[in-house]
Amino acid sequence: MLYIVFLTARCNLVCRYCGGSIDESVMPPEPTYSIEELRRFVENDPHPIIAFYGGEPLLRIDLLEKIMDNIYAEHYVLQTNGLLLDRLKEEHLSRLSTILVSIDGIKEVTDFYKGRVYDRVMENVAMIRKRYSGELIARMVACEKTDIFRDVVHLLQHFDYAHWQLNAVWSPDGLWSDFGGWVRKYNAGITRLVDFWLESMKKGTVEGIVPFLGVLKALMFEPNTSPPCGAGTNAFAITTDGRVVACPICADFEWNVLGTLQDDVFGLPRVEILEPCKSCELKSVCGGRCLFFNRERLWGDEGFNLVCSTARHLIHEIMKVRQEIEELVDTGVIDASDLFYPKYNNTTEIIP
């Protein structure tokens, strides 16, 4: 299972779509439990994956090092804004299977939403690429200024993979001037990006576009029975005060709290998606997209349906090219193993 560990609730950025550090009413700034308590919670799992999360987890490199040195995991994953990547020691950097770096596309878009961080982050990414053999993922938030084709293609020049989530979690008030209009442009960009992806495959290269690979995996190899992130089924987040929650983004919601570090992880309740996702004909691919969005409906029916339309469009575009991709595998142009992604739960949610 995947254990998403909040190393701190503090952040060293205040992005326009986020707001920075987590409020103390949600969880304390720093962990109040011991390493030993965390170890006991994880140790009975034969295949644990530990993801370091925040806040900005690299504000607590000391705690990251202690966990890696004292608690076994098959994979260690880091989600970071990238500003402190240069401070990771070689011995711990080399043991991370996946690093996801928060960056929103080209310099102008990233700097608009995150402050003037693009140059510093890209310098750090270039630096660690020289000595890091794990997977390096650009993790975008798709916002109003996002051109999905332009920004993904740009990031693929610097990262092994590109992944994104729509800025469609909390209330839309003040976030969008015309979300419906943006969705139309976004869907057109997805179609163009799928064409680019297929043409690259015809030349023998499988570009690391995470949502496309994840959808193809569900179509060809392993259907999704729940949201691909695993929230509430095989992925859990551990807050700084030792609560165990299904989804890390809403630790203060009652339905989301499953227990504490004192509980047996295998005895925790599971959280299922609700209708209409539960009966949707695309559930085996989409899995319900997002547990929080499915349950809270902060965007109302119209907003919910617009977001759903983006997932449907992306899935249908991948369905259109599936046969051609399978033919490329059969003729040896590409390797089927490159299409089975992710090979473990690396915190990528798959469906934007």
Automatic annotation (TrEMBL):
InterPro entries: 4Fe4S-binding_SPASM_dom, Aldolase_TIM, Pep-mod_rSAM_AF0577, rSAM, rSAM_sf, Sulphatase_maturase_rSAM. CDD domains: Radical_SAM. Keywords: Iron, Iron-sulfur, Metal-binding, S-adenosyl-L-methionine. Coiled coil: none annotated. GO terms for molecular function: iron-sulfur cluster binding; metal ion binding; oxidoreductase activity. Pfam families: Radical_SAM. It comes from the Archaea. Its cofactor is [4Fe-4S] cluster. Residues 7-131 form the Radical SAM core domain. NCBIfam families: rSAM_AF0577, rSAM_more_4Fe4S. This is Radical SAM domain protein. It comes from Archaeoglobus veneficus (strain DSM 11195 / SNP6). The lineage of its organism: Archaea, Methanobacteriati, Methanobacteriota, Archaeoglobi, Archaeoglobales.
